[in-house]
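Box 3.1. Reading complex inputs
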Amino acid sequence: MIDLLRDALVKNALVTSFAVVGAVMGLSYLISDRVTRGRLHGSAIAVFAGLVLAYVGGRMTGGKNGIADVTVFAGMGLLGGNMLRDFCIVATAYGASFADLRRSGLPVVVALFSGVTVSFICGVAVAAAFGYRDAVSLTTIGAGAVTYIVGPVTGAALGATSEVMALSIAAGLVKAILVMIATPVLAKSLGLDNPHTAMIYGGTMGTNSGVSAGLAATDPKLVPYGVMAATFYTGLGCLLGPSVLYLATRWIFPA
Amino acid sequence: MIIYGVALLAVSYLLGLVLGDGLGVLLGVKANVGGVGFSMLFLIYFTDRLAREGKFKPPSAAGVAFWSGMYLPVVVAMAAQQNVLGAIKGGPLALLAGTSGVALSFALIPLISRLGRPPPRAGEAATAKTQEAV
């Protein structure tokens, strides 16, 4: 009987994931309602529950894909993969105001450049404090603090060691997860309640998964604005990391 | 029909990604540059234009609205497959590098947000003028 059920779940992985995520959402909204009396939004709890599941999955399998590495939950990988995530993100743009998007154009460019630079400098400073002195390692870890995609792209371009690459990716993961959790908590004090600020937020934080989950847990109406800006962040990071930022780092930390 | 909306969404998505990949190649960057952003602009443009011609009917809109509504569950599934263990295993260096960057970035948002704030409603005009001067 259990085998039959397990078989059905594994063979219909995507459909299984619909049911699983539905249950997670339902439970999260129940907790939001009963335990926090609506103070913590259900969507924020759901994202956090997702992260907890990811931790449990990682513990169970030792893999990199969280709960999706557990065979029965493999469908979560498809449902939460890049393809469907981006497809849904694009769909949220339906009804977004083009005028709002255009008005914030220039400040978003400022946000993108300062966001990438600030995160990079923090990463480099911490790496230096931990004793790294060579420009390649410093740049790679700094780039990881930008996003977990910019890190390995930069590290690969510069020929960083695999140990440094792993640290760089880990720094980016910390960032993404922290943004997911902190955004709904900080939203009010940041004034994150309008399209303009959402675009600045997306441009400054950049990490796609962090921004998309953070805004979803704050106000779904703001998602397209924030993500629109964030979508240029990783590209800009990959552009600046191995070039300008590396040269600047090498200038400060000569070999 | 619902599929018209879904298909329009799919075409916008693909066009944007191709444009983003192309831009990445052009800039010599090993990443998609702004692809999803372009996809969004395509979708806004197409739906706006078709709606004005009266060709974007409610069932088509429902095809887009469904995927828009699936956004949060998809994001929860995405969160569930993050390498949380990897982030924790990165130790204090990764933790500090990620956290300090996020903290400073958050602090930047209110500052940058003052640039080019949308035109305020009556009564706030005076403060807005000084902000523009800055």
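In summary: Residues 162-190 of chain A form the longest helix (29 residues).
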